[in-house]
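From the pipeline queue, job 12 of 40. The input is one protein chain; the requested action is below.

Action: predict structure.
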Amino acid sequence: MSFLNVIEIESAIQGLAASYPAITKLITLPYATAEGRQSHALQIGVGGACPNLAVLIVSGTHAREWGGPDICVNFAADLLKAYSNNSGLSYGGKSFTATQIASIVKRLTLIVFPDLNPDGRNFSQTSYSWWRKNRNPASSTPGVAASIGVDLNRNYDFLWDFPTAFSPALNPEITLASNQPSSDLFHGTAPFSEPETRNVRWLFKQYPTIVRFVDIHSYGGDILYPWGDDENQTNTSSMNFTNSAWNGTRGLAGDQYREYITQPDLDRLLALAGSMSGAIAAVRGENYALGQSFNLPSWGTTYPTSGASDDWAFSRRYRSTKASTFAFAVEFNRTKTFFPTWAEMELIIRDMSAGLVQFSLDAVPRFWRPWIWCVIFQWLYRLWKRLWPWELWGPYGPWERPLGEDIRPGAGIIGPR
């Protein structure tokens, strides 16, 4: 075997949806790519009267990181087969029981979006293997091949305007982002300017119960958690990405600015990352390092980013009490190459599949809600909304708090990433 191409990935996802119609749904994503490709995701779950908590897994953001879509397709196929056969799953030294597999399918909505950037992947596999961006030519210079495309992992709405938000002492072309279309880090013309990232945003809108998000990348062997713009701190809530008073200071280690995160959120991120890492290590002893995105462990240095998917997904939790997503980026493949041999990739698929099963299992709610309680809860929620509408008292209402005030939830070569 070898790495799946774009057509094979689409065929595999559609084939799984056709083979398991009772527990899957093929999701047609609304935004076609620059080259006219329509992407699909696969929804897995039994569903019911209550909207289940959801987990979103995406891969293929960067064209040359070939293994991510293969991981996603194999993970989905293994999960569906095990559930349908009422059996467990084993990957080397890591096993999951049939009961655990059933809890994922019955109590979660799992969304797998394996090939976020099909145009780029096709170009990487057929023309230039080191290609990173998508293939949008809108900002390109005629005759300059490198000026085609946008780095999709710099195109999300998190400190996207890096010249304003970050310190001028940084060289943005190293890891941060770029305004130059010929750069591998070109961030586009606006946040979500690209159809590929708008498809991810659309999934978050369609599935408002997403509580876990992971973006699969290569390489390094890291499990990364927010934030990616600066070092974390848990004490000063006004020192945060929404506060324009800190513009021009972000991105440097050891200075005054550090990005605010609540201590409970930081503890939870570390616990979830550690659980995934433990599952991966149990397969064959591959020890994936845990680290904040700003301090990419496999690089051994700071790695500031703007407009990254995991930061944006997690930042929604700090913008609105309606969003509650814990977000991660995983850099598979500790051998540090974008193109491992297929024999090595098969081992990586097993490692990562175990990690993704554990990641999903950790999102399963502990207490199962009978449908009658769901109906009662929804009725009470509608009554509460009518009596105290969110539009009046919520963070986007007429009494919105000024930027920078306490926004705690409940209290108000270019590298892989």
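Job complete. The chain has one domain: 6-393.
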